[in-house]
Amino acid sequence: MVAGAALLVSLLMLVPLAFVASMAVRAGWQTVSTLVFRPRVGELLGNATLLVVLTLPLTTALALALAWLTERSDIPGARLWSALAVAPLAVPAFLHGYAWVSLFPSFHGLAAAVLLSVIAYSPFLYLPIAAVLRRLDPGLEDSAASLGLPPVLVFVRVVLPQLRVAICGGGLLVGLHLLAEYGLYGMLRFDTFTTAILDQFQSGFDGVAANMLAGVLALCSFALLGTEALLRGRARYARIGAGAARAASRARIGRLTPICLLLLVLLQLAAIGVPFVTIARWLVAGGARVWQGVEIGPALGSTAMLAILGASLATLLSAPMAWLSVRAPGRLQRVLEAGNYVVGALPGVVIALALVTIAVTELRPLYQTTFTIVLAYALMFLPRAMLSLRAGIAQAPVELEHAAASLGRSPLRAVWAVTARLAAPGAAAGLAMVALGITNELTATQMLAPIGTETLATRFWSYTGELDYAAAAPYALIMVLLSIPMTWLLHAQSRRSAGR
Amino acid sequence: MKRRQLLMAGATLGAASLAAPFVARAAETEITLYNAQHASLAKEWVDGFTRDTGIKVVTRNGGDTAMANQIVQEGASSPADVFLTENSPAMARVEQAGLFAPLPQETLRQVPPQFRPSTGHWIGIAARSTVFAYDKRKLSGNQLPSSLLDLAKPEWKGRWAASPAGADFQAIVAALLLMKGEAVTTDWLKGMKENATAYRGNSAAMKGVNAGEVQGAVIYHYYWFGDQAKTGENSNNVALHYFRHQDPGAFVSTSGGGVLAASKHKKEAQEFIRWVTGKAGQDVLRTGDSFEYAVGVDAASNPKLVPLADLRAPAIDPSKLDSKRVTELMMQAGLL
């Protein structure tokens, strides 16, 4: 029964992709080729490629340097710097854009897009790299050094290969965000597929044209997945040997300390200083006026409602799959999981566009309803919910459930009394992660929110569109404040997983 | 216990917000307005109308294209009684779907024929003029384009901006298409692709001019007046150039209002449109801070504006503006 439910959820997740494909088939090759093979698509493809190709190496280099400094060097205040390295996550990408554009009105184009992408997304690479660096057995490095390798080569030939999986995984995550982000690039006037799809959607509601752009975007995401799989390779890295690895000693950076500190300070000024200064500045400029509007309350209310409903649905939908992967791993489960992995890479705009088109053309009663947008959220954030829930269920040993059953509980009641309770923290973490994602979601919300429903993000977006930066500031502040606990949780989790 | 209370509260909140639109519909003398006009202007109209007639109005705000599409999708079951827009193409779309109820002669007579479609299925409620907002530190007198068509010429490369994804700009292109035909429009859009910088939103385009990023922008007039009335921080370096001479660039876009054929409160809805196009409604445009033109017979606009009669706008039947074809042409040109 659980397997059936998991299968059903997987099919549901496939709906957007299947819809784009069927749209292409129905439109016919002639239409598809005129819509896809046109100069504008080439332009967008060029932009997307440039963005990914420039941003990924820079972000990786930055994250590596940060991770090395905070985990392997004797830089003063390493713990603080490590917490700060994750801090940009508390500022949604489009708020980074808002902060910079309102400080420097001419901050536009590719260079701006790359710079802010590096700043906003570096934690996605920093977190896994730092976690692996912390766990590495220094014994391997010692052997290499004792065989005469200078420190730099030890890093390149011994440490770097062990970081490969972490870099590939983090890089994939960053790449997918680059393709999916709307607000940041919209604000920087840098056209990507996602911004073009929204323009197309808002200006004519031309279902086929927008969906074909979405198709190309989906292919780009799959290309990223494929590249990652190739680069990651098949090698596995594990430590064998008795006992626990000792902690690596920290390298002395000596005379370089001031320079490294200066660079760290500069980076944090750009990553956290600019957003906070801008928000504070606009709050001061706006004074009490911007808080008096009657709109903040309802926006907060509808955001909370959508976040709670979306997070609950995502967690509910992820339950069967999470259960299967812990309790009954097997071929079906592996196939489903691989499928979910691929579908999970779809940018939100593709899912939202497919749902809106389906609602308009096939299931009209669903058009402009809360149900549709909640479903879109659930599909977009299902992978997040599943990760946490799976970890939660894995914490509940099946033996306890057996014990409860042997004491006379029916199977369902045993699950409810034992496993559900033990898995609850994992589920709660998943709920919170999804709820946060929904709170800061702009793309799908713009397309699917029923007319009249305004969230924090959409209100923020319409005020910045009118250049009323002061009126937008309270919304920015609320979104950042809501994101801070979650960022802290992520940071704490990554430290705990390394056992210290 | 606490948790249960919390859950209950959450469920009630959820249920209440889902049910709100339906509950609102139940009251007797209440009409639903789908509003794509500026929310602040619509609110002034609604407040004045309720004050004068006692009829309550529930407003749902959105954009031209999105709301027109929604009305077309909802068809006969649309909860909307009245629809107000910023530009004519969205009205034309609903009209072509046959979803408007005809307006009575008495209402139509309140607005001169150039601000309403020949069909009489909807009516102009306000108007906005196309302008070339330019950086007065860089351009003056004879350096300004004499026609909108000039902006496609090579000498304007990299010098001007617009917001091509917006309904406002697409209405201007629709006027160009209606006046000059497809060949001219296609060429012009090609030139625009070469020459123009795309901004997201007219305010942003004007701010770009003000900051010296581009020399000019094709937008509507009231953005400048609105900003000047506030702090002027986004427009103090900007001046407005009106194309005049019945040029496509002198296009005056008619904001429309109509009563839905599916309305269950037609009498009250008709009353609302009559009020908005009548003296009290048009007076809001003169005294408020919307800076849109009044279109009523003998209604005066805000005295700060260049008089409507001096704009020498081309004569255009607003219901013939074809937004769908415009989107197609703009896609061909690579602008969308």
Summarize the structure.
The complex is a heterodimer of chains A (500) and B (336). Chain A has helices at 2-36, 39-72, 78-86, 93-103, 109-135, 138-146, 151-180, 183-187, 193-204, 207-232, 257-286, 289-292, 296-327, 331-344, 348-361, 370-394, 398-406, 411-439, 443-448, 456-465, 469-497.
How is this structure best described in words?
The complex is a heterodimer of chains A (500) and B (336). Chain A has a domain at 38-237 and 251-288: MetI-like (MetI-like fold, Orthogonal Bundle), CATH 1.10.3720. Chain A is 80% helix and 0% strand. Chain A contains 21 helices and no strands. Chain B is α/β, with parallel strands linked by helices and 336 residues long. Chain B has helices spanning 2-26, 39-53, 64-74, 88-96, 105-108, 167-195, 202-210, 222-229, 266-277, 279-287, 323-332; strands at residues 30-35, 56-61, 82-84, 100-101, 123-135, 160-162, 196-198, 216-220, 238-241, 252-260. In chain B, strands 1, 2, 3, 4, 5, 6, 7, 8, 9 and 10 form a 10-stranded mixed sheet that branches. In chain B, strand 1 (30-35), helix 2 (39-53) and strand 2 form a beta-alpha-beta unit. In chain B, helix 3 (64-74) runs parallel beside helix 4 and helix 6 (167-195) runs parallel beside helix 11.
Beta-strand residue percentage of chain B:
15-25%
Range of helix content of chain B: 40-55%
Counting DSSP E segments of at least 2 residues, the number of strands of chain B comes to 10
Oligomer: heterodimer
Largest interface: A-B, 36 and 44 residues
Provide the residue-averaged pLDDT of chain A.
Answer: 88
Largest sheet of chain B: 10 strands, mixed
Give the N-to-C terminal Cα separation of chain A.
40 Å
Structural class of chain A: mainly alpha
Beta fraction of the residues of chain A? under 5%
Overall residue-averaged pLDDT value of chain B? 88
Assign the CATH topology of the domain at 38-237 and 251-288 in chain A. MetI-like fold
